[in-house]
Design goal:
By secondary structure, the chain is an alpha/beta fold. It is built from 14 helices and ten strands. The chain has helices spanning about 25-35, 40-50, 65-75, 105-115, 135-150, 160-175, 200-205, 235-240, 250-265, 270-280, 295-300, 310-320, 330, 335-340; strands at about 5, 10-15, 15-20, 55, 85-90, 120-125, 150-160, 180-185, 210, 285-290.
């Protein structure tokens, strides 16, 4: 397993990490992901640790805290061998203090997460969304206090816009608060929007990407193909409205390219999609999930080999999208391109 520094921090993380969204799954969204119990979760933790994957990602909103609870049971007795990442900010109830990143909410939510996880510290705490109702200074001052208290060690964000992340980094620099070192983002062959604004920001500011839904909400598993209905067991029957939008014809072109590379390499379609992501700039770790041991072992096979230059070009061509403004001039005019050379 390869390990990389998370952004500009000293925290070293594996290029694959395990997403615990299937642990304790309940409700229309998380129940469709999976409902792994404590015994199954412990077995999956065994397998990932054997493979060198020691970073486990969860969130308080995953099945109303059940994911954190099951993960806590699964790592019991081996806390020093694992890294825990959890997220908070999204609503956990209907009350006025049940959502957001106010000082009161962050302190209470951190204490509740620690209790569910059965630990006294969180390696990486990420804000699950930007809270426009709370001053950035209040958020960062609170996170600074939680770090000082030893309850969290590193901080990051998830699903922030470029200006929201940059504003936060500027406040950290101005006041001497800790900086965000991670940004958990949606990024896949079927969704490359991350590359336009957030990737250059991450490269410039030392913010590493933790990639969620690297298989485009289950669309890059190799089971969804042109001219065929959704497989009966696909979670897309219940959860497509929650996931990122994908143009069907574009998706089929990408799957065709993945099929071609799969035939050339002897690897599976998901393994190729994951391996492509591992090689992208600023990506520190790709968060994989699994409903069962078979899926987990297949996803773990995405490391330890490389795609050729020609195979990368095949995937890049099939997945390329038109640049939005103000980025398209950089692609079309030599003067702009010289001033703003691409990262990829």
């Amino acid at each position: 397993m390869e390990y990389r520094n998370l952004g500009s921090s000293g925290l070293r993380v594996p290029v694959l990490s395990f997403g615990a969204g299937t642990f304790g799954g309940s409700g229309p969204l998380f129940g469709a992901w999976g409902n792994t119990d404590a015994a199954e979760a412990r077995r999956m933790v065994d397998i990932t640790l054997e493979a060198g994957v020691n970073l486990f990602d969860t969130a308080d909103v995953y099945s109303a805290g059940a994911s954190e609870t099951v993960l806590g049971h699964a790592i019991k007795g081996r806390r020093d061998a694992v890294l825990i990442s959890t997220k908070m900010a999204l609503p956990m109830g209907d009350g006025p203090a049940d959502w957001g990143t106010s000082r009161a909410r962050l302190i209470r939510s951190t204490d509740e997460a620690l209790k569910r996880l059965g630990t006294d510290y969180i390696d990486l705490l990420q804000l699950h969304a930007f809270d426009a109702t709370t001053p950035v200074e209040e958020v960062l001052a609170t996170l600074d206090g939680l770090i000082t208290a030893g309850k969290i060690r590193y901080i990051g964000v998830s699903n922030f816009a470029g200006w929201q992340l940059m504003k936060s980094l500027g406040v950290s620099e101005r006041h001497g608060y800790p900086r965000y070192v991670a940004h958990q983002v949606y990024y896949s062959l079927a969704g490359r929007d991350y590359e336009w604004e957030l990737m250059p920001l991450g490269a410039d500011q030392g913010v590493g990407a933790l990639v969620w839904s690297p298989l485009a909400w289950g669309r890059l598993t190799g089971k969804i193909r042109r001219g065929q209905p959704l497989p009966e067991g696909s979670r897309l029957h219940q959860t497509s409205e929650y996931g990122p939008p994908v143009d069907d014809e574009k998706l089929y072109d990408i799957v065709d390219a993945l099929d071609q590379v799969a035939q050339e390499t002897g690897k599976t379609v998901p393994q190729i999609a994951l391996n492509w992501l591992i090689g992208r700039p600023t990506v520190a770790s790709v968060v994989i999930g699994a409903r069962n041991e078979e899926q987990l072992r297949q996803n773990l096979g995405a490391v330890g080999w490389s795609l050729s230059k020609e195979q990368l070009e095949t995937l890049d061509k099939a997945s390329a999208a038109a640049a939005p403004y103000p980025y398209f001039p950089y692609q079309r005019q030599e003067g702009f391109a010289r001033l703003n050379p691409p990262l990829v």
